[in-house]
Amino acid sequence: MPDDGGRLLAAGPRVGLRPFSLDDADEFTARARESRELHRPWLFPPCTPEAYAGYAGALIEDPARAGFLVCEHPRNPEHPRNPADPEYTEHPEHPEHPDHAERGRIAGFVNINNIVRGAFRSGAIGYGAFAHAAGRGLLTEALGLLVTYAFGPLELHRLEANIQPGNIASRALVRRAGFRLEGFSPAMLFVDGAWRDHERWAITAPEPRRGAGQRL
Predict the structure, then answer these.
(1) Facing residues of 109 across strands?
(2) Is residue 154 in a domain?
(3) Contact by Cβ (8 Å): 40, 166
(4) Which of 92, 150, 154, 96 is nearest to 125 (CA)?
(5) Is 23 a member of any domain?
(6) CA 112, CA 121: separation in Å to the nearest integer?
């Protein structure tokens, strides 16, 4: 997916989705380092600028992948900004500087990988919330936006999520988004030094409604 200059592609009440950009390295990696305890052992987002460059570059350039940053709306009254807040800083390169707030704090990410077109029109999703956003329902909202965008502008028919059985939070997230459990795959993916079992969850686009004037 091309770098779209930070433009929101989908928006809900509290978050929006925008494409990954190489300019987001500092904030993304800072959030990833803050969130290591939350993510392990399920998730390993890039924690250094070098790792981020390769990760984001692939999402931007590879037509079989589409990556989206989940950003809080800058004026979200749920978290008004206050210069007395310990996270607030005057340093312009810090993720909590007001200039970054104008774009919206990065709350997480939702990606579609292994996109196949033709008769399949399917992709596999990956996602994660950062520590400051966890437990607030922001990723639930973001995943709903992703599903709508995938079945709309991206013209996909099916999304799949492969989840380790012990990842209770991730299983609950996709269930809330309308995914169904389709099966179990032993030793499916190599994660954290070993081949791990995964459950396969999926959702398909709703059938278009026939217009009143259409013949059955």
Answers:
(1) 69, 128
(2) yes
(3) no
(4) 150
(5) yes
(6) 12
The number of folded domains in the chain is 1
- pLDDT for the residue numbered 7: 80
Determine, yes or no, domain membership for 212. Answer: no
User: Which residues, in sequence order, are CB contacts of 209 under 8 Å at separation 6+?
Assistant: none
Other CB atoms within 10 A of residue 143 CB: 24
CATH code at position 102? 3.40.630.30
Structural domain of 142: 10-204
Residue-level pLDDT at 209: 59
* Residues 92, 99: Cα–Cα separation, whole Å: 7
As a whole number of angstroms, the longest Cα–Cα distance in the chain is: 65
User: What kind and span of H or E run contains 211?
Assistant: none
- CA distances in angstroms from 118 to 2, 37, 67, 137, listed in the order given: 21, 40, 21, 34
Q: Please tell me the distance from the alpha carbon of residue 203 to that of residue 179, in angstroms, as a whole number.
A: 5
Residue 47 within a domain: yes
Give tens-digit pLDDT for 71-112.
Answer: 998 655 454 443 333 343 333 333 443 344 446 899 999 999
User: Residue 1: its pLDDT value, please?
Assistant: 54
- Which residue ranges in the chain fall short of pLDDT 70? 1-6, 74-103, 208-216
